[in-house]
Amino acid sequence: MLSFISRRLLTAVPTLFVVIAGAFFLMRAAPGGPFDADAQLEPEVIDNLRAAYDLDRPVIEQFVRYMARLARGDFGPSITYADYSVTELLAIGLPVSLKLGGVAILVALAVGCLLGIFAALNRNRWIDYVTMTVAMTGFAVPAFVVAPVLTLIFGLYLKLLPISGWNDGALSNMILPVIALALPQIAILSRLTRGSMLEVMRANYIRTARAKGLPEYKVVASHALKAVSLPLVSYLGPAIAGIMTGSVIIEQIFGLPGMGRYFIQGALNRDYPLVMGTVIVYATAIILLNLLADVIYGYLDPRVRRE
Amino acid sequence: MMAETTARPVRAQGGEPVLQCRDLNVHFQTGEGRISAVNGVSFDLHRGQCLGIVGESGSGKSQTFLAILGLLASNGHATGSVVLNGEEILNTSRRKLNAIRGEKMAIVFQDSITGLTPHKRIGEQLCEVLTQHRGMSRSEARSRALEMLELVRIPEPARRFRMYPHEFSGGMRQRVMIAQALLCQPDVLIADEPTTALDVTVQAQILKLFKGLADHTDTALVMITHDLGVVAGLCDEVMVMYAGRAIEQASVDSLFYDPRHPYTRGLLACMPRADRDSESLTAIPGQPPDLSELPPGCAYAPRCPQAFDRCLTERPSLDLAVEGHLKACHLENAP
């Protein structure tokens, strides 16, 4: 198991490099620069600023210098937030995003699995159709529609929940963003669970388990559940990526001080180091969580376990 | 006039039968309509007896016993009567069925590859039968399960105990399935084509295991198979099924030496024989009928070389041909 993990971590290095290089050159290729909005500045001042951030050098040289810095663990200074280093900004944003994303994925897993199992056990009855229709709708409606509608209903009309702000992660402030973030994942996870459950319950070994005289709850819990969860674990990687990209929009809509907000601010202001920092953190998180999903998969299915 | 007479038991034998099945019908409700998989099947099974059920795929032989165990697919429904040890068990509650399954009546399925739960250790899968039915502690269950693995000739059972099904060969997995079925020493053991998925050499070993069981315990054995050779070597009584009906029921000797139904004769003629100098394999021409559109007469008539007018219009009932030998055929047999 340890050699499997270390092997996977080694192959993650080139992946991460490709992501960094791609993001770096795409950012430079985009029109505009970090100081375009500051129209009142003298050309000499702008030249001095560009020199201070290495922007006057050829792109390749900029990249080499950036990588050298990165190798020392330095993400560089932010251009927009002049007094902060990127590392400091990430230290502010990351805990917020981690908490929001973590809660959203847990909620999505719990609700999605329950709905899926519920629908599978009531297959082809109206309860199944209603659940799956709602799930499909949840998947089809994008977050930037769901989020304002939720704020409108629960924030403005019913006045039950705050419409924005983080308030140090208070429960009431988290409810709406978590719902908006988790909804599409709930939709996909519930459909996956339903399909997986239906397939597993038809398997020969389930018939064997029933033929042994085990009560149905034991048949499901002890013989079916692990196999049912396999496709869910496979989907965990994409689900986490979906939650992360979703959080970029959701944090913006609800005004949450997370990574997503820095990512968008950075991208709009061409704050190259800030964008690179957030991209690297996102990519690393996705790689690590995918690795975790594979480890869990190996634990659940002895056939793919490696010595 | 019409054919629906209640069939008599295969052989009147002393004592109560352990399993008694009367007029069992199984149908499935599907999108294309109602399919009758089993029609009016009756038999008695006594202690220590081995009953062979022979038929092609789709003849209803497996569904008969899945219905008896209450394991039909959700769109299946069974009617009739099944009495185990004097108690009616057909369509009884899941609770009562659970007390019977694995304890009084156990089944070994055909497909040992997919028949064991892939993510559970063999040991756990065996022990849960004993903890469920006998309330044994883990260590008691373990030693009993190990004994049973030894009985079915699994080498190094203690090491195998911790392994997963995919680490076993097909024959070994089938042995595990058999051990699992025997853990509680059931009154009735149903073997549903237990050797079809195995190599010929392994088949012989597994059959030997069943033979030993049939000879040395008083467990009643039901051997579902399409292989008449298996029946000849193992069984006391045989029931031949075609299109969901029993068409011939007799003792093994009577059936093999004096088959009364043209279908049985056809099956016997299909058996490859080493003592005959024939290069080609014989087959019964035609296909079994569609179960959703059964003909009004004998289901075998379209393929039967001896069919005449009456066979197409009137279904033959299962009647006594000679003592202890039932057949459903209009042909008057020459003695």
Key structural traits:
heterodimer, A: mainly alpha, B: 335 residues, alpha/beta, Rossmann fold, 12 helices, 23% strand, globular
Task: Give a verbal description of the structure.
The complex is a heterodimer of chains A (307) and B (335). With 307 residues, chain A is mostly helical. Chain A has a domain at 96-256: MetI-like (MetI-like fold, Orthogonal Bundle), CATH 1.10.3720. Chain A has helices at 2-29, 43-52, 59-71, 86-121, 126-140, 143-157, 171-201, 204-211, 216-254, 259-268, 272-300. Chain A is globular and about 85 Å long. In chain A, 33% of the residues are buried. In chain B, helix 4 packs across helix 5 and helix 5 (138-151) crosses helix 7. The model of chain B is unreliable at 1-12 (pLDDT under 50). With 335 residues, chain B is an alpha/beta fold. In chain B, helix 8 (200-216) links the parallel strand 7 and strand 8. Chains A and B meet through helix 8 and helix 9 of A and helix 2 and helix 4 of B.
Q: What is the approximate shape of chain B?
A: globular
CA(first)-CA(last) distance of chain B: 25 Å
In quaternary terms, these chains amount to: heterodimer
- What's the CATH topology label of the largest domain in chain B? Rossmann fold
CATH superfamily of the largest domain in chain B: P-loop containing nucleotide triphosphate hydrolases
Low-confidence parts of chain B: 1-12
- State the helix count of chain B: 12
* Domain count of chain B: 2
Task: Give the mean pLDDT of chain A.
Answer: 87
Number of beta strands of chain A:
0
**What's the mean pLDDT score of chain B?**
87
CATH architecture of one domain in chain A: Orthogonal Bundle
